[in-house]
Fold this sequence. Notes:
Layout: E1 3-4, E2 17-19, E3 25-27, E4 37-38, H1 46-49, E5 58-60, E6 62-63, E7 66-67, E8 69-73, E9 79-82, E10 84-88, H2 91-96, E11 108-123, E12 131-137, E13 140-147, E14 153-165, E15 177-181
Parallel strand pairs: 10-11
Antiparallel strand pairs: 1-4, 2-3, 5-10, 6-7, 8-9, 8-15, 11-14, 12-13, 12-14
Protein name: DUF192 domain-containing protein
Organism: Salarchaeum japonicum
InterPro entries: DUF192, Saro_0823-like_sf
Amino acid sequence: MLGVLEGVPARAVAGDVVADAGVLVGVVHPDAGAGRRLLHTSPSDAADLGASAAGGTLTSLTRFGEYVRLRHNPDDSARTLASKVEVADGLVSRGLGLMFRRSIPDDYALAFRHDDAAERGLHMVFVPFDIDVVWTENEEVTAVETLSAWTGRGTAVADDLYELPAGAASDVSVGDRVWLES
């Protein structure tokens, strides 16, 4: 989310991770001016900051005010895994992922989309809560894992991967279909 952080020290430069006394955590935008714009902030501030990001760094997928949903279809009955999905599509947002966030909502997912399938790894350094991760290739689940806060690591072959709150993917199995739907 693109946000404004008041009171960021004048010595903060592009790429610095900053936080105010509240919940707002972010990375200083390279073009930050007087308002000290941020490239990436915590999801709890999304409603206050709006649902879009600058520079293609972190995108909340919206369509006419509605979020794109992450769907799961193990058989003939599709269900929603997450009703609020953000796509990390820039260097900074992919590098940060869920780092420095205090929590994520129950109906939230962070998507990492790629053009081709390859081994995709992630870590939980600076992520203070457990998450579920779903790796997919052509919308077919290749791996599902719960990663522990701070120390978890996971790797699987995928063209897309989704980070969700712990327990959200408990019914997802290898071979199931998981996709984004508007």
